[in-house]
From TrEMBL:
Residue ranges of domain Alkyl hydroperoxide reductase subunit C/ Thiol specific antioxidant in the record: 1-88
Coiled-coil region list: none
GO cellular component annotations of the record: cytosol; mitochondrion
UniProt domain Peroxiredoxin C-terminal: residue ranges: 116-148
Taxon lineage: Eukaryota, Viridiplantae, Streptophyta, Embryophyta, Tracheophyta
Name of this protein: thioredoxin-dependent peroxiredoxin
Length: 168
């Protein structure tokens, strides 16, 4: 996460870590992260949850992995919270699998575009690829909202709801 801090900052995203370790462990772990990734600094806050109350409430517990004491390990969960303080997207990886930060950035970009335009991003979308205009937008509205134009996909049903455009 810390290595991607400049990318988060470019997108106006604030990071907050949550860990089932205590503050002393966090301070030691931060040294390891910064040594492993030269030039990277962990500058975001990390909340200690040694009783594992918050991680259970946020469904961030791996159902299969346990520590030496028999406690369930936290999963590698990541929640994206919008400006309205509501969870917009959750990733839940098992404790044994690292996060895909490129996918997190892609998802953030998609969420940002969708919050500013009446669009959705199709499967495997990447920044710069065409987006889909929401079916709730009429063609007349689409012409006004997307003056650069759009392309309607011909479908066997004859319905014209799959329309692609580009947005910045």
């Amino acid at each position: 996460m810390a290595a991607y801090l400049p990318e988060f900052e470019k997108r106006g995203v604030k990071l907050l870590g949550l860990s089932c370790d205590d503050v002393k462990s966090h301070n030691e772990w931060i040294k390891d992260v910064e040594a492993y990734t030269p030039g990277c600094k962990v500058t975001y806050p990390i909340v200690a949850d040694p009783q594992r109350e918050m991680i259970k409430q946020l469904n961030m517990v791996d159902p299969d992995e346990k520590d030496s004491s028999g406690n369930q390990l936290p999963s590698r969960a990541l929640h994206i919270v919008g400006p309205d303080n509501k969870i917009k997207l959750s990733f839940l990886y098992p404790a044994s699998t690292g996060r895909n930060m490129d996918e997190v950035m892609r998802a953030l970009d998609s969420l940002h575009k969708a919050s500013h335009h009446k669009i959705a991003t199709p499967a495997n979308w990447k920044p710069g690829d065409p987006v889909v205009i929401s079916p709730s937008v009429t063609n007349q509205e689409a012409n006004q909202m997307f003056p650069q134009g759009f392309e309607t996909q011909k479908l066997p049903s004859g319905k014209e709801y799959l329309r692609f455009t580009h947005v910045n």
